[in-house]
Amino acid sequence: MTNPYFSPHSTPSPERESLFIKREGKEKLLTALRQMLLIRHFEIRGESAYQHGLVGGFYHSYIGQEAIAVSAIQAFGTENWYSTTYRCHAHALLLGATAEELMAELYGKATGNAKGRGGSMHLYTDHLLGGFGIVGGHLPIALGAAFSLKYLKKRGASICFLGEGACAQGAYHETLNLASLWKLPLIIIIENNQWGMGTHVSRALATDKIAEKQAPAYGIKGYTLDGMDYFNCFEGFSHIYKEVLETGKPILVECVCERFKGHSISDPASYRGKEALQALLQRDPLLHLKEVLEKNNLLNEAEFKKIDQHIKQEILDAMKTAENSPWPSLATLEEGVYAP
Ligand SMILES: Cc1ncc(C[n+]2csc(CCOP(=O)(O)OP(=O)(O)O)c2C)c(N)n1
Prior knowledge:
Structural class: alpha/beta
Helix content: 40-55%
Number of strands: 8
Number of helices: 12
CATH architecture: 3-Layer(aba) Sandwich
Bound molecules: thiamine diphosphate
């Protein structure tokens, strides 16, 4: 039987959503909304701090993709191994890093998540093995984490987020081959946000339906999810997690989405027309979730504003703390450096 959740074109329906609410409960959705708002406010303020010269290095916003990380981490839990790309603020926030330590990291301060040494692209938690700057570079690390779970006979999975740009990379294909060959509990989540820097996916990859078409070549399952739709993603990820735990085999997932901003803060995304952007903004995953909550009488505008304001304040406080935090001391320059 085809599952309606596994199609990027499945249209959200009131029946689907009320069934979901009955089964999963109101609190799960409110938590998801709060998490999406936290990510959204963090990115908005982080970019603004960057524009004011308070943040150095690069800045890759996750705005527009919130439904993916939020639903995935809700479905898989926070105890698994995670790895991701430089677009990593959301994943770190969801895996236990505080807005305060992340903002301090962006500001390059000693109190930052990586002691001010990693910046925006290199964030960590006890379960996030890192944000990685090299496209495809973290796939072998995610594979190693999956290998360790099998070797140590531990229950769980290694979950690896990447952009579709990495799907043309050798490390990606080697990882898929070994994960399948050795039957490792690896979940590879391609966040297909349509663009690899300024190059549209149709000009970079030979096929569409990346997961569904590539997975069979490695003898594993591949699914396509609607990355703009929290409900579709949560259902899909929950199903996929069960399957990985039951079979111990890897799964490839493509989440079709589109980033709202440019590749990084220095990219005005002029390759995307204004009309296309306007149409995209209509598919905002955060507003979609808010609408569903409102339609089901689980949230009203005043309650939403209160949550929104509270989270915004949390981020503003984090910025203030970051600004007032000390720079890393010169005396610590050689600490944590492993090069001989
Ligand atoms: C091996 C390697 N080649 C090139 C780059 C430069 N680069 C940084 S991001 C990027 C685009 C990647 O796009 P995608 O994987 O789709 O991720 P997204 O930025 O869309 O999340 C490129 C080519 C790099 N960091 N690493």
